[in-house]
Automatic annotation (TrEMBL):
<dbReference type="Pfam" id="PF11811">
    <property type="entry name" value="DUF3331"/>
</dbReference>
<dbReference type="InterPro" id="IPR021769">
    <property type="entry name" value="DUF3331"/>
</dbReference>
<protein>
    <recommendedName>
        <fullName>DUF3331 domain-containing protein</fullName>
    </recommendedName>
</protein>
Amino acid sequence: MQTIASLPLSGTDGVHIEILERSDTALVIRWVEPGRCHYGEQRWRRRSAHTSGTCALSRSKIRRGDAVFKPAERPAPSNAAAMISAEILGNLLDA
C-alpha cells in the first residue's frame, strides 16, 4: 500500500475526506462528517457496486456493477452506504 502525504478532498454534503494510503484494491481514509461521524483511519475496499448510487466525492452517478471503494469495517459504520467511484478517484490521484 502506498502512503500518501495526506490528500484532502472535499466530499459532498460537507464531508471532508483525506486519502492517507492507497493501493489498487484498498484505501485508508480519514472521513469527517460534521455532526454525524469521524473515522480517523477507515479501511475501504475496491469492489463492484451492489446498488446504484452517488459518488461521495463528485456526485456523479454510480451504476450497479461499477468499480467503487466502500467502507470495509465490521460492524457496519455510519457511512457504510457511501461509495467513491474508482474511476473518479483514479482521475483525481493521477492528475
